[in-house]
Amino acid sequence: MTAESTTSAATAETIRHELLGFLAERIKTTVEPEQDLFSSGLVSSMFAMQLVVHLEEAYDIAIVGPDLKLDSFRTVESMTALVLRLKDADDPAGDA
Amino acid sequence: MPEPLADERAFLGELIGDRAGAWDLAGELPLDLLHKAGARGLLCAQVPASFGGLGATSQDNGEFTAYAGSLDSSLRSIMTSQGIVAYTVQRFGDRAQRRHYLAELTSGKLAGVGFSEPGAGSDLSSMETSIEPDGDGFVVNGEKKWLTGARYADYLLILGRNGDAAAAAMIPVDSPGLEIDLVADPMGCRAAGHANVRFTGIRLPASAVLGGGGQSLPMLFTTALSYGRMSIAWGCAGIIRACLQAAGTHTRNRTQGGVALAEHQLVRRHLAELLIAEQTSTRICEHASRSWDSGSPDMAVMAVLAKHTSAGHAAGSAATAVQLLGSAGAQDGHVVARAYRDAKLMELIEGSNEICQLILAEHALSITG
């Protein structure tokens, strides 16, 4: 869906924008970039996993091991930082 | 094109032979058989080759799981547990943990997994087991119910609270403070080695807690359960295939008053329904596996849909098969008698029918305006 448009030249701005759109579509709620999605009860158990798989697919990254911590997914900002870090990593944790 | 995992299928078929009925009656699987199957990577066939596994797709492992389920749901449920543990390690373990545990899980070591507690089944928020930092390592306290395969396991993967987050720990079964009480006379999957387990101040090195802990509880549960749901869904397709086979053979060959049972229209309706159940379940499992193999964000929901559909069809098909076989199948150990008891359990575990319906209803609301 969004993979083609975002794999190349993703910046913090484009990732943040895409994630806010994805969230609005999936949980039918407009969220703020700094809003805690987990403590606010917006993220169901199904959606928690959808988020991970979506980020992996859309940005061609593998999110595994210590990167799967709750803190990486709390907000749109923290997910944006996670995506940028994993895209920049020379040796992603996922292909060990 | 050769059938994927064809050699593995033949190997497993030979290991099981015609002994599943006897294992059901005895309530125990031969441990050496589990070690042999484990050492060939059959119990968690989706582990990537780079970690020593067979690297099967969800689709190929699914067909393999259905084959196991058609022969013996106790052994298939051991596969489900081992696969959940391997997948959880693969996702949440750090580099060293993935390498260490996945090598063990594909070379004969066995693992069970614990979700439910006395006061917390599907309601995650009431989970009480804790995995908390303690010096250089962690300490585990709590209780889990109905761990499949605990009787045979070398490790138990336990999910628990970790501060305001969650963690998953690989607990060696010889850890001081671990008590394993076998469930007496389980109604189904009788040889799967279910047990209730208690943890009292179990000390673990930091290397036993996947990724160092601090995960989201829903994310951890859903990831682990999703693999389990896929495995159960395919295993149920296998149960239905065994029922269809037994019913077809019996009604063609059994005559009453000189007429084969299969000549009766009411019997034929049952046969049609068995075929419909088998095809419906297989196709929905294939769909969920495609979602899984393509990394679709809907994979977790599709796993619930497949598990719920297949388990319901398996329970119905097993009842139909017992009905058609009559006294020929109404004896414990018989393939349809096992199916009848085993399939009912599949409507309870890894999300009961009702929990699956709640998840699917939530999904229905999320995709409608």
From TrEMBL, chain A:
InterPro entries: ACP-like_sf, PP-bd_ACP. Residues 6-87 form the Carrier domain. It comes from the Bacteria. PROSITE patterns: CARRIER. This is Carrier domain-containing protein.
TrEMBL record, chain B:
InterPro entries: Acyl-CoA_Oxase/DH_mid-dom, Acyl-CoA_Oxase/DH_mid-dom_sf, AcylCo_DH-like_C, AcylCo_DH/oxidase_C, AcylCoA_DH/ox_N, AcylCoA_DH/ox_N_sf, AcylCoA_DH/oxidase_NM_dom_sf. It comes from the Bacteria. The keyword Flavoprotein applies. Its cofactor is FAD. The keyword Flavoprotein applies. It holds the Pfam family Acyl-CoA_dh_N. Residues 9-109 form the Acyl-CoA dehydrogenase/oxidase N-terminal domain. Residues 221-364 form the Acyl-CoA dehydrogenase/oxidase C-terminal domain. Signal peptide: none annotated. Keywords: FAD, Flavoprotein, Oxidoreductase. Residues 113-200 form the Acyl-CoA oxidase/dehydrogenase middle domain. Belongs to the acyl-CoA dehydrogenase family. This is Acyl-CoA dehydrogenase. It comes from Winogradskya humida. The lineage of its organism: Bacteria, Bacillati, Actinomycetota, Actinomycetes, Micromonosporales.
